[in-house]
Specification:
The protein is an alpha/beta fold. The protein is about 40% helix and about 15% strand. The chain has a domain at about 5-160 and about 185-215 and about 265-280: NAD(P)-binding Rossmann-like Domain (Rossmann fold), CATH 3.40.50. The protein contains nine helices and twelve strands. Strand 1, helix 1 and strand 2 (about 25-30) form a beta-alpha-beta unit. It is globular and about 55 Å long.
């Protein structure tokens, strides 16, 4: 008998990838706005009690990092309060909760990869709200996995760094990109595969806890942009861009601060999955190949 999996946020870039990848791993009940509103606690409680799933995967979040600075209450409602409610309700059912968090719970001042046990110290409203969500889950549930990831992009959804770069690359000859922020670009396809590998292991109580999962390798946003254009050109994308110019964070001020160093150590989850995550460039290549195969280069999947 297949396990019942409630997938919340099924229309987002990660949610759509999870929905497709996990279809053969259980009976998926996929919900998204307007059917469920994470800012409304009662609708969440009612959903869990009606569906009574064995596993809840929360792929929904408030992800507008800069906008969160002016909408702290909404960011907190979705990223902090809602995960706590999910933890309460899944614990009552004896169900398992899988929740996604972020590198933004750290301040980015380290020079070596962050481990799960390193001190958290967010420097933005978004990071604070995501950390509060982690704390609420740990307080309310024993049966959970919090998966921190970073620099996420994918074929689905309206916008991400890869789609933004391609759009600019179609329109401009020169693009300026920040070169002093370091992290690990991570493809939603690889995150979804990691979750698929974790699902059969949920029957083991010791599997619960906090993990880091990103693609392997390290890059700056500038490095990532250069790689995007190289790979896209190899696939025949009709790009206009001729130059990618590195700039500093100070050259591109934003309302929210970003961690300068966002590399996460994935040693813990590698032991569980027994295989390391693919390199970020490999994930990028797969994403662009899929986009080029199924859509015109000017109209990536939404």
């Amino acid at each position: 008998m297949n396990q019942s999996i409630l997938l919340i946020g099924s229309k987002g870039q990660l949610g759509q990838e999870l929905h497709q990848t996990l279809a053969s791993y259980g009976d998926i009940i996929a919900v998204a706005r307007p059917d469920v509103d994470l800012a409304q606690p009662n609708s969440l409680r009612q959903l869990i009690r009606e569906v009574q799933p064995q596993v809840v995967i929360n792929a929904a979040a408030y992800t507008a990092v800069d906008k969160a600075e002016s909408e702290p209450q909404l960011a907190k409602a979705i990223n902090a309060i809602a995960p706590g409610i999910l933890a309460q309700e899944t614990e009552k059912l004896g169900a398992f909760l899988i929740h996604f968090s972020t590198d933004y719970v750290f301040n980015g001042q380290q020079s070596h990869p962050y481990q799960e046990t390193d001190q958290t110290k967010p420097i933005s409203v978004y990071g604070e709200s995501k950390l509060d969500g982690e704390l609420a889950i740990r307080y309310n549930s024993d049966n959970h996995i919090i998966l921190r990831t970073s620099w996420v992009y994918g074929n689905y959804g309206k916008s991400n760094f890869v789609k933004t770069m391609l759009k600019l690359g179609f329109e401009r000859e020169e693009i300026r990109v920040v070169a002093d922020q370091i992290g690990s670009p991570t493809w939603t396809g690889d995150i979804a595969n990691a979750i698929a590998s974790l699902l059969p292991l949920l029957k083991h109580p010791e599997i619960g806890g906090t993990y880091h999962y990103t693609n392997s390798g390290v890059a700056s946003w500038y490095d990532f942009a250069v790689a995007i254009f190289e790979e896209a050109q190899n696939l025949g994308f009709p790009l206009k861009v001729e130059r990618v110019t590195p700039i500093t964070t100070a050259d591109y001020p934003t309302p929210a601060q970003r961690p300068a160093y966002s590399v996460l150590s994935c040693a813990k989850i590698t032991k569980v999955l027994t295989t390391p995550a693919p390199h970020w460039r490999q994930g990028l290549r797969k994403m662009l190949a899929l986009a080029h195969t199924y859509e015109s280069p000017n109209s990536l999947r939404r």
